[in-house]
Amino acid sequence: MRDNVLGLKVVLPGGKTIQIGKERRGCSSAVDLTSMFIGAEGTLGVVTEATLKLYPRPEFSRSAVCTFQSMEDAIRTSVKILQQGVGVSRLEFVDETSIQAVNKAYQSSHEEKPSLFLEFQGSETSTEDDAETVKTIANKNDVIDMKTATEPEDQKKLWHARHNSYYAILALRKGGKGVISDACVPISRLAECIRETKEDIAKTSIFSAMIGHVGDGNFHVIFVVDLDNRDEIRTAKDITSRLSHRAIRMGGTCTGEHGVGMGKIPYLKAECDATSLELMRTLKKTLDPKGIMNPGKILPD
User: Fold this and answer.
1) Which terminus of the chain, N or C, has fewer Cβ atoms within 10 Å?
2) What is the rounded CA–CA span in Å between residue 298 and residue 301?
């Protein structure tokens, strides 16, 4: 996200407004305040305007779905794709539970197996070459099937299971509510982290599914729970705690996308050293001495 933000207008806690960031490439003057405010989750000021980077529409795009017998095969394939530098613009993982949920909710007929969803952008020739490279890698990891599409409507159909997975998962349990956690690890540890998380969840009776933006090592666990059931909430929190510490132990982070907020505060002491945390507190106190911006978020006491 931060790489696509060129500049911000921010209202500070005291009421002053600042304009930060540069629209010129290659500018390295001054402290990078833009990144600081992007990562602050609203605890240092209120963003009122944002200047974003625009990208041209690709000359050609191609989508693919690879279906695997096991989660390990799917993740190993995604890791190899990234390590070989294949030109994928999107690389998503969806587990078999999510696919089953989509089929039930939409009367669709997707293969109910762990799947990778990919998109390639470039020229027709380059995307074809990239898709062939992925096919070769997937074949070495016992892929069951690989479907591709180039027409927009066909691409939409291929991505249907990924785009509609969240609400379909919730629909599997009447009255259930989604509690979502995420983590991010180095690509080389992704398969290990997901496998251990799956094994951890399997030891409990909680209902969950897993999807992920595995192109950057980020994945989400979706728990479908009864919010009035304290045991279920406690189980979800315990699994989230173990996942967070697991990701940190593997050189990753307790949250790759959702942010710290209040729920991930306990894990910052494990992820950040004491000096870094104290520096963050100093910045907060300096810019927001009265603590009016998103109080109680991010920083542990």
Assistant:
1) C
2) 10
